[in-house]
Structure formats: structure tokens, C-alpha cells
Automatic annotation (TrEMBL):
<keyword id="KW-0808">Transferase</keyword>
<dbReference type="GO" id="GO:0016301">
    <property type="term" value="F:kinase activity"/>
</dbReference>
<keyword id="KW-0472">Membrane</keyword>
<protein>
    <submittedName>
        <fullName>Histidine kinase</fullName>
    </submittedName>
</protein>
<dbReference type="InterPro" id="IPR010559">
    <property type="entry name" value="Sig_transdc_His_kin_internal"/>
</dbReference>
<feature type="domain" description="Signal transduction histidine kinase internal region">
    <location>
        <begin position="169"/>
        <end position="246"/>
    </location>
</feature>
<feature type="transmembrane region" description="Helical">
    <location>
        <begin position="129"/>
        <end position="148"/>
    </location>
</feature>
<keyword id="KW-0812">Transmembrane</keyword>
<feature type="transmembrane region" description="Helical">
    <location>
        <begin position="12"/>
        <end position="34"/>
    </location>
</feature>
<feature type="transmembrane region" description="Helical">
    <location>
        <begin position="46"/>
        <end position="66"/>
    </location>
</feature>
<keyword id="KW-1133">Transmembrane helix</keyword>
<feature type="transmembrane region" description="Helical">
    <location>
        <begin position="78"/>
        <end position="98"/>
    </location>
</feature>
<dbReference type="InterPro" id="IPR050640">
    <property type="entry name" value="Bact_2-comp_sensor_kinase"/>
</dbReference>
<keyword id="KW-0418">Kinase</keyword>
<dbReference type="InterPro" id="IPR036890">
    <property type="entry name" value="HATPase_C_sf"/>
</dbReference>
<dbReference type="Pfam" id="PF06580">
    <property type="entry name" value="His_kinase"/>
</dbReference>
Length: 360
């Protein structure tokens, strides 16, 4: 319904239907239950009913548009209560004056009690109570509607601010990840130039392909998981060029479905951590990288031995910004849809990461 009718028109229809229902239930239900065939209601009765509807509508919108925003929502609760009480007195006085003006009391008395003498000073107490209840209901409903509209407006504004904050923060985090990644990669290529020029050239070609991915895909909020996997495979191939025979790579990467999407460069910091801490030129080591897709769920796992970083290496001065930013990105992009666990296995001297993401 909301997709077919504009929001303003829908609100107008709801208000109209609400007033029609209120008029039928509160103003017509009782008189229609009387013996209409035996009693002919005077014109004054219907004039008063129309007058009550007009006054209640005025009270409803005056309260919701003026009193609630300018008094109640400003924190002036006691003043608002005083205004409502004064309004009740004025409403009652206005109804009494209108009844006297049109001769409502005499007309109703002659209709239902023609055999008795009319006393203009005597009023029907249940009728007065009923009218005051109408006033209370009108004020209560209008206050509730105004407060709900205020809450909806505040909630919409809060969601928009959260969305802008998240987009800004994600852009900032991705801007931090890019230099971090290229710093490590260029450092690897620099090391290769002293060992094998042909391998360094091949590494530069792979890096250029990876740069295209970073420049085009990383500017988006999401990319195909298949592209992210190819990026990871290129990165691993690049890392292989600087590894010695002492490092054993156990790569288990499953080809994902084409329709799954993921935030770009989300898994890279975990891979960087493997090659940063899990490689030694003197000791045997093994790095496990596993990517598995089951339905819409991505399972990512890494394991690597823990070796101290060369203090002369630029990597030794990094502050772990990649992993920190990745945790933050996961919390922002996949709230309640991911599970990240990591830690050290002291017995095996290994560092492990298990990440599960629901990509639905």
C-alpha cells in the first residue's frame, strides 16, 4: 500500500478514516441505538454533534501541531498539563454556551420528557462526563500521534546520520588499508630486486593487476566474491616469489558462486599477517590459507607459525593497523552476520584466524 500511495496522501487517508471511525463510534453509535422509530431527534441534537466534531478536530490538531511541539517537547511538562486543564474548562464552557445558544437543552427535554417542566439550570451529568471524555480522548490521541511522529522523525534522522557516519568511517578505513597493503607489497618487490630481476618484473606485473582491482573495486562498497578470491590468489602468488623452500604453503581455496558479493579487500590483512609473522629464513614453517563457501556463508581460515619480525624491517614498526581496521569494517558492514575468532596456540607456536561471514 505504501509503495502505491505517496506518503503524504497515505497520511491524509489515515487521518480521514480515523475521524470517520471516531464520529461513527462516539457520536452516532449511541443515538442510533435509541428507538429511532418512536423518537424524532431534534435539529439541535445534530447541530451539537457537528459542533463537537469541529471542536474536537480543532483541539486534536492544535494540540499535536502547537502545544506538543512548543510546550511538551520543550520540557515544560507542568505548563503543558496546566494548558490542558484550562483547555478542558474552556471546552466545557464552550459546549454549555453553544447548547444555550441553540436551545439544545429545551429541545432534548421536550423530545424525551414532554410531560415534565423544563429546568434550564439542571444538566444531565452523564452527558457532561461523556463530552469531557471526548476531550480527553482527543487530547490523548493527538499527543500520542505527535510523539510518534517526533520519534519517527528523530529515528529517520538518526539512521541517516548513522549511514553517513558509517560511509565516512568505511572510506577512512579503506584509505588506511590501501597504503598499508602497498607498503608491504612494494617492500617485497624491493627485496626481490636484489635477488632476481626477472622475478621482480613478474611481481610488478602482478602488482599492476592487483592495483587495478584496488583502484576500481575498492572504491565500491561491495564486489563479487570471485573477484576478491582472484585478488587473494594473485597476492599469494606474489608472496611465493620471495619465499624460500623452508616455507610450505597449504592453499585450499574453493571457487565461489558468481552471485555472492563481499566488501573488497576484507581478507587481505589476515593474509598479510600470515606472511609477516609466519615466514623464517632459518626454520621450517607452514602457512595454511583456506577459503570455503557453503551456500551463502563464507568460511575463511588461516594458520601460521609465529616468528619474530626482523627489527631492521619496516614491518617491525607497523602498529597492526590492518587487523584493527578489518575488525572495525566487519562490525560496520556485517553486524550480527559474522563471527571472527583468532588467537595463539602456544603448544604448536601457531597463530590462527577463523572468520565466518553470512553474505546473504
Amino acid at each position: 500500500m505504501a509503495t502505491l500511495i505517496p506518503k503524504k496522501n497515505l497520511s491524509l487517508i489515515v487521518h480521514l478514516l480515523g475521524w470517520i471511525m471516531l464520529c461513527v463510534v462516539l457520536l452516532l453509535l449511541s443515538p442510533l441505538s435509541w428507538k429511532m422509530g418512536e423518537v424524532q431527534l431534534p435539529t439541535q441534537f445534530w447541530a451539537k454533534q457537528i459542533f463537537l466534531v469541529a471542536v474536537l478536530i480543532t483541539i486534536f490538531y492544535s494540540n499535536s501541531s502547537i502545544l506538543v511541539p512548543r510546550i511538551l517537547l520543550k520540557g515544560k511538562n507542568y505548563l503543558y498539563l496546566l494548558v490542558i486543564l484550562v483547555g478542558a474548562v474552556l471546552f466545557y464552557g464552550l459546549v454549555v454556551y453553544f447548547e444555550q445558544f441553540i436551545g439544545y437543552g429545551r429541545a432534548m427535554h421536550e423530545t424525551f420528557n414532554p410531560e415534565k417542566v423544563f429546568d434550564p439550570k439542571k444538566r444531565w451529568l452523564p452527558g457532561d462526563v461523556f463530552q469531557l471524555l471526548l476531550y480527553v480522548i482527543s487530547v490523548g490521541l493527538s499527543t500520542s500521534v505527535a510523539l510518534v511522529q517526533k520519534w519517527q522523525t528523530d529515528e529517520t534522522l538518526r539512521q541517516e546520520m548513522d549511514r553517513q557516519r558509517i560511509n565516512t568511517e568505511l572510506s577512512y578505513l579503506k584509505a588506511q588499508i590501501n597504503p598499508h597493503f602497498f607498503f608491504n607489497t612494494l617492500n617485497n618487490i624491493y627485496a626481490l630486486t636484489n635477488l632476481d630481476v626477472s622475478k621482480a618484473q613478474e611481481a610488478l606485473l602482478k602488482l599492476s593487476r592487483m592495483m587495478r582491482y584496488v583502484l576500481y573495486e575498492n572504491q565500491k562498497n561491495e564486489t563479487l566474491l570471485s573477484k576478491e578470491i582472484r585478488f587473494i590468489e594473485d597476492y599469494i602468488e606474489l608472496m611465493k616469489m620471495r619465499l624460500s623452500s623452508k616455507v610450505k604453503l597449504n592453499i585450499q581455496i574453493e571457487e565461489p558462486k558468481e552471485n555472492l558479493i563481499i566488501a573488497p579487500m576484507l581478507l587481505l590483512p589476515f593474509l598479510e599477517n600470515c606472511f609477516k609473522h609466519g615466514v623464517s629464513s632459518q626454520h621450517e614453517s607452514e602457512i595454511l590459507i583456506k577459503v570455503e563457501v557453503m551456500g551463502d556463508t563464507l568460511f575463511f581460515e588461516t594458520r601460521n607459525h609465529i616468528f619474530p619480525v626482523n627489527p631492521d624491517s619496516p614491518e617491525a614498526h607497523e602498529n597492526g593497523i590492518g587487523l584493527t581496521n578489518t575488525q572495525r569494517r566487519l562490525n560496520l558492514i556485517y553486524p550480527q552476520k559474522h563471527r571472527l575468532k583468532f588467537g595463539k596456540d602456544d603448544a604448536k607456536q601457531e597463530y590462527w584466524v577463523n572468520l565466518t561471514i553470512n553474505l546473504a
